[in-house]
Amino acid sequence: MGFLLMIISILLGIFFIVFGISHRDSKHWHKISIVLGTVLVLFAIYLGFPK
Questions:
Q1: Measuring CA to CA, how many Å separate 20 from each of 5, 6, 8, 30, 51?
Q2: How far apart are alpha carbons 24 and 9 in whole angstroms?
């Protein structure tokens, strides 16, 4: 379960970061998308640490 959650989190995080960078013309949505993507990537890295 943890491995699947890590994979989903990293894929969604990368998607949100790319989406935020490519849509810079919107006012605040690109910033929110980049922050959300960064949080998801950091969460996936946290899940990858041995416990």
A1: 22, 21, 18, 4, 32
A2: 23
- Report the amino acid identity of residue 5: L
Are 33 and 50 spatial neighbours (Cβ–Cβ below 8 Å)?
Answer: no
Give the model's pLDDT for residue 25.
Answer: 81
Backbone angles phi, psi at 28, to 5 degrees: -110, -15
Residues of the chain scoring pLDDT < 70: none
Q: How far apart are CA 46 and CA 36, in angstroms?
A: 15
CA atoms within 13 A on the CB side of 48: 11
- Contact indicator for 2, 12 with CB cutoff of 8 Å: no
